[in-house]
Design brief:
Helix content is about 55%, strand content about 10%. Strands 2-1-5-4-3 form a five-stranded antiparallel sheet. Helix 1 runs parallel beside helix 3, helix 3 runs antiparallel to helix 4 and helix 4 runs antiparallel to helix 10.
Length: about 350
């Protein structure tokens, strides 16, 4: 039985049955007829449609238990998507194992570092995780089967926060909360202008990671090892994968993780995150008004090396002079001192 008086259909997948139960529970919370809500669902496609309707209704209805129900709805949608995908290919065991490993991570930072590895493990040559804040795109971690040098070069290309996501294909990922499949990445003017020349992707897929009821991140994959390209299956696979990641992020935040591991709350913290440890040390001293020679003496490096670090950090921060870089540093620490959540994470040099 599902709920009270709802008989399970013998040919209905357990994921769809669970979706019906979730919809029934939400209907009771919304004080609508559970039977009417359940009657909409006959297969995976109708379950997804009903879950979307249910999520919108819950989002508009203020009640103490709504947040947990919303998480249940999203988890149910992820499970139904998994069922749909498993009918196309026998990917589910790999997908389940990857998500289990991600769920075993203990901090948001660990999760973020692991996401590209597990994404690539689903059969892709490259995968990238990026934070998104107010349509500002900040690549955070990457994995490539070609080795770390390629990954670092792509991350470096995307390091300066990109503020014009609205001009890119990814705008639909943010605004519609739906994955995209880009088949003409080489010639399409709406791909990331700095990353595209370095990655040289012909096709790629991007999907949203929704946490705290907004798109908090992207995951990008390209070059399916089996097909040499990306297609609709890859788009749908990544959609499910990212649905589950969003639930993980939400549960981390709901568990009241330490402030330094909270989701990025300001573009400033994202910019600082793009810097290496050495670049942060240089920025800290630069913000006190020291010259390159003085900074070099403090850090036991040459003035010329210091100058190189300054040029790199200014490029990553998107500023044109030392004063602007110093002001950005002080803005971040003013936020921390006033109780904000901004806290730079360590990025390997």
């Amino acid at each position: 039985m599902i709920g009270s008086g709802f008989v399970k259909k013998q040919d209905m997948d357990p994921a769809v049955q669970n979706a019906v139960q979730t919809i029934v529970d939400a209907a009771r919370q919304l004080e609508t007829d559970p039977r009417t809500a359940a009657r909409r669902v006959g297969d995976a496609s109708s379950a997804l449609e009903a879950l979307d309707i249910t999520e919108r209704a819950l989002s508009a209805y203020s009640a103490p238990d709504n947040h947990e129900l919303l998480l249940d709805v999203r988890a149910a949608r992820a499970d139904v998507l998994a069922y749909e995908l498993s009918r196309q290919r026998s990917m589910l065991p790999m997908l389940t194992a990857a998500l289990a490993r991600l769920r075993a991570t203990s901090t948001i930072d660990d999760l973020v570092e692991s996401i590209p590895i597990e994404s690539a493990g689903l059969g892709y040559e490259r995968a990238m995780f990026s934070w998104v804040h107010n349509e500002c795109w900040v690549p955070r971690s990457m994995y490539t089967t070609s080795g770390p040098e390629e990954g670092r070069s792509i991350l470096d290309a995307g390091a300066p926060p990109y503020h014009h996501t609205r001009d890119l294909m990814e705008v639909d990922v943010v605004r519609k909360r739906r994955p995209i499949l880009v088949l003409d990445a080489v010639t399409n003017p709406r791909v990331h202008p700095a990353i595209s020349p370095v990655s040289r992707s012909n096709t790629y897929v991007a999907a949203p990671v929704v946490a705290r009821d907004h798109v908090a991140a992207f995951v990008h994959v390209d070059r399916n090892a089996a097909t040499g390209t990306t297609d609709e299956f890859d788009r749908d696979l990544l959609a499910y994968f990212c649905e589950s990641i969003g639930v993980m992020l939400d549960r981390f935040v709901a568990a009241k993780v330490p402030a330094e591991e909270a989701l990025p709350g300001s573009p400033v913290s994202d910019w600082i995150d793009a810097l290496t440890v050495r670049e942060r040390e240089v920025l800290r001293l630069l913000a006190t008004g020291l010259t390159n020679a003085q900074i070099g003496a403090r850090l036991f490096i040459s003035a010329e090396t210091t100058k190189t670090h300054v040029k790199k950090l200014m490029r990553k921060l998107g500023v044109s002079n030392r004063s602007q870089a110093g002001a950005m540093y002080h803005r971040l620490h003013a936020s921390v001192d006033s109780g904000g959540s901004a806290h730079p994470r360590e990025t390997p040099a």
